[in-house]
Amino acid sequence: MREFPSPQAILKLFERNPEKTYRLRELVVELQLRSSEARELKRALKELARARRIVYLKKNHYALVHKDHHPISVTRPSIHAEAAPTAARGPNVVSGRLIGHRDGFGFVVPDQPLAGTDLDIYIGAEAMGSALHGDRVEVQVLRSAGPAHGGRLEGRILRVTERAQKTVVGQFHSGPRFNYVLPFDHRIPFEIVIPHGQEWPSGEELAGRNRQFGGESEVKGAAPRTTGRRSAKDLDGMIVDVELTTYPRPAALPRGRVIEILGRREEFGVDVEIVIRKYHLPHRFPAEVLAEAAAVPQYLTERDRAGRRDFRGLPIVTIDGETAKDFDDAVLVERQPWGNYLLHVHIADVAHYVRPGSPLDREARLRGTSVYFPDRAVPMLPLDLSNGICSLNPHVDRLVMSCLMEIDPQGRIVEYELSPGIIRSAERMTYTAVRDILAGEPAACQHNASLLGNFRLMEELARILNRRRDERGSIDFDLPEPLIEFDEYGRMVGITRSERNIAHRIIEEFMLAANETVAGFLEGRNLPSLYRIHEKPDPKKVLEFEEIAATFGYSLGVELPAAERVRVRLRDERERYPRFLERADAADLKITPRHYQRLTKRLEGKPEERILSYLMLRSLKQARYSEENVGHFALAATTYTHFTSPIRRYPDLIVHRILKAALGREGGSVRVQGVASDAAHAKPDKKGAGRLSHARTLREAAATPAAVAGGAFVPPQELQALAAATSEAERRAADAERELIEWKKVSFMAQHVGDEFDALIISLIKHGFFVELLDLFVEGFVSLASLGDDYYVYRERQRAIIGQHTHRAFHLGEAVRVRLDRIDREGNKLEFSVVD
Description:
The protein has 18 helices and 37 strands. It is of the alpha+beta class.
């Protein structure tokens, strides 16, 4: 059987004609390949381009890199070298963050949108200089491509102002001339050259890693120790972390030295280690941070208890997942004699232990958030705090910040109180256990008989709050999430859809109520604070969704006053007729949360629900943190913040500090009367005669400075920087969590190559379509090349892929039968074909 040509054979073809530019079709002929092998050839060419052996010029055109540009024969730039000399900033020079692409080019996202456009700036491969994905850069805007091409801006990197990639994780390859590491992040399109003598970590680095693994005698995954001399060949195929010592130039590959050996890709736990380093997640606490955490007593003193409301006699409980170990929140609902509900939300008082500017605080700010993987977590705070004294563990005294809300039968908050408190959780409950209790499961009810009435009352109030939220237009997509299942040995055995039961909804409603209440209080006092905002969607995204939804017979029902019809060019040149879109300015697009809410309700239980709910979500902007309150679109809330998770989110800790400072200014606690949304902005009850004072189990206490210790107001300028940094940390954590789940899925599906599945088409592109398996929470790709019965073309207007001769069509949302053909481990992708 004829073998596909090796990279060396392909390279020799270029070397025979070093000045020639080859088209892909020419290469297929020269290498005597079949047309069906063009895709594999293109993949090989991309790898050669990534290695800087050839260069991709334009549409499927390739040429040899000049000999003078060979990475071995040039002078290396220093690690401090920039892409170009610092230039005086002018009107065409902007700052931003670089988003790299695996093919060598990139885009700069400006810090401030450029006048007249919200587009990113395209940076060609030849204009990237030494910049890498994630770097902060200064870029000179050279030109605009004009309206015919979407008004795309183009530029070149002038200099790198902040490096994002100081280390790179990848697979080590030994070679006769030089060793190199191939990065796992495809947005770094270079091999990292490892000079001889730099292949092994230093002794101090090895010892440091051993300490991180609890004093193990061997580095996890490292080659066995031998009495002989170590060779780079021992590392071949190993996953390593590399510290960059030089950055790329047009004529030189970057260089680095190995600082960590993680093991082989297929070994247990190595996938998590790769993702942690790929996303540069801080995962090792500095010694001074661990020392400060260890010095915190794991018990409360009389000074800690002084001046706090005492809730220890109440049946307050935590409700969390089965594997949770850090408990931020505890809840209780009491029925008032006059028919209202008294909702208790008690949140761990992390600010009492993590003081501004301390080593603990600096590390928490750096991390921004805890990161949760299927089989482990990377916490924001050391375990002595996150799982210890800060966690609201059962049957022990813990400090809290308490939010008590009196709620009428219509779901309106008529009065609330904010104060430092102390609780003793009566029980550590799980979502599953509470679900079983509320479903009347006999064993669960019997085991928690003393709390049964409390949970019934929680369910009753949660439904009232949900109905109230629904009436104002709050959106609830209820999209399922993947749940990775493991056996007792930590091996993955399945992928299912996570359940969102009534217990999840109870906690969700209670946390939403507390977050809104605290946000309203701080805004009502005109205190600079961090808000959780969700802006109105981009009109273009809304209109794009409307166009797709119309093919299913649905619409958001948005009115478009002052709209104009715009003729646009189709991607498919064969389409005879122009397509028209309605375009409107943001101010003219009268879109509200209720438009989305109505459509989600119409879609409930329909075959199109999964597709259109996903596309609706994509049409919305991402929620983020901001020092300016613009409301929360999806929640239909005028003011919202994050207050309820200070163990795992840094913005919540900041809000706690601001709240404690505000309470300290008002005597240690505050009680506010009002109705509905007015309650948040009403004046405090100076006489203390509010109904909350009738709660017989509450014990009055004079506030002391210790009770509000750790409080601090934050200047607006610092809040702005915190909002940007924590929003970025949140996105980084979400991307890392999502990628690891994809790794787990690909590993699990390796045993199912050749198997057939029922699937749903969830997305169409010009090269093929993506499917989601109905029985597993797994996605994959069906390429047009795999559809061998016809020549298929993507018709954007019809939102379908159609055969030219048979007219067979594949539509968005259509059910298909597919077979798993191939696992792409490098790209963590699954390749399917349609089964006729």
